[in-house]
Amino acid sequence: xxxxxxxxxxxxxxxxxxxxxxxxxxxxxxxxxxxxxxxxxxxxxxxxxxxxxxxxxxxxxxxxxxxxxxxxxxxxxxxxxxxxxxxxxxxxxxxxxxxxxxxxxxxxxxxxxxxxxxxxxxxxxxxxxxxxxxxxxxxxxxxxxxxxxxxxxxxxxxxxxxxxxxxxxxxxxxxxxxxxxxxxxxxxxxxxxxxxxxxxxxxxxxxxxxxxxxxxxxxxxxxxxxxxxxxxxxxxxxxxxxxxxxxxxxxxxxxxxxxxxxxxxxxxxxxxxxxxxxxxxxxxxxxxxxxxxxxxxxxxxxxxxxxxxxxxxxxxxxxxxxxxxxxxxxxxxxxxxxxxxxxxxxxxxxxxxxxxxxxxxxxxxxxxxxxx
Length: 372
Ligand SMILES: *Cc1c(COP(=O)(O)O)cnc(C)c1O
Fold this sequence. Notes:
Oligomer: single chain
Strand order of the largest sheet: 1-9-8-5-4-2-3
CATH topology of the largest domain: Aspartate Aminotransferase, domain 2
Strand content: 5-15%
Bound molecules: pyridoxal-5'-phosphate
Distance between the termini: 22 Å
CATH class of the largest domain: Alpha Beta
Number of strands: 12
């Protein structure tokens, strides 16, 4: 069994995709070709954003807005410690300092009530809190109604980390529409993935769109070899754009299938384990189906039993960011973010993709049922 099955999906789009790739091989515009512009306008209309700037990865999609806004030493950016390393790594890359705020145990997303405290801590360290990066973990949007109110009152601008949540929504707003800018990833394992690395930034701000396009290509000015600011090589390849254009055709159908898989898991596992509950008004993109065992020992038993039955499971995230060696310099220690630490000791994720059959779900759930 696969944790994420990309082959069944490939079989659905294979013919049309190979045709598109052949066109690119022939037209020769391998980087930032016409497919890239087509993709950007399709993605912008999908999310409802005015602008979409595609780029070379989700990490660069997070980094580029921070660079465009001129973040640097002395600035603090508040984020969650319960996420993939890239969310906070990009803050350090600009020279700014990540300041963490603990999560809500029911959604695994940043707790809006802890943000003001994090801003105070930043000021106590002599830093100037400038921005906030909420993460839509496992595909579920963060609590933007409350986050936006808190950010406004603290004078922070928001960068949504939508790397896992493309396709999700909160009432009538899709992921990619929250904050001043939003970043998503097209890494193959994400809900919308390409066949390599890719990402995109969304914004409604015309000036930021202009700056992002410059940062994406070495801070380019009006002329190709004039450079107005420090940037990166952050372009998207035409072939990756073509893969995404083909996958977008079946993406909404796949979201429905993911929802069906999640419901099938939850109806079988609710009451035995803590299953993910989606709050009213939210739609998850189900990047992961993550649940909680009652203890670390029970999680180990379940994961070992699954493995013996040939079923993969993964822990996202075993080491919270404040306890990662790379961030030792920030001065955090064990006990600083109790909710995050508790969750990282109990959480694990089951296979999740649109092509998981009810028979496979039955097998997975009965293996789990046999050992708890
Ligand atoms: C995957 C991911 C990223 C980084 O995306 P890449 O395309 O791998 O660079 C950033 N944040 C989160 C939450 C992610 O899951």
